[in-house]
Amino acid sequence: MSPARRILGLVGIVVLLGVPIAMATVRRHGSGASRAANPAHAPPGVRVRVQVLNGTKTHGLAQQATTYLRDLGYDVVETGTVVSSRDTTVVLDLSGHPDWASRIARALEPARIETRTDSSRYLDVAIVLGSAWRPPPESFDP
Description:
Alpha-Beta Plaits, alpha/beta, five-stranded mixed sheet
């Protein structure tokens, strides 16, 4: 087999393998335009500081929600656990931006939103996860 045919064969293999992988990546992560249009993603150009607290007996749920929210563009700055268990996820609007809390509540459905002003302004939104929330079925990390 000539060197030219070998190179052509290798290029063909790379194209055959590369195109489906690229398409799957775009389908999974979405293009920038589709991400901005998704109402659950963080608003473009805004840093929304979030605290995620596990309000269930499910070990590691706050970490799963943290990874999920970071994938949506939120800046999760703190995670933890609360002592009391709850069924419904509560999204607390601490900074007077109900749109941000609403976006996060959509991402963590079913969830309810409460407004509590926090003068420290360290956090914009706090979340207490309830047992009704389930992480998305697909893997977060590539």
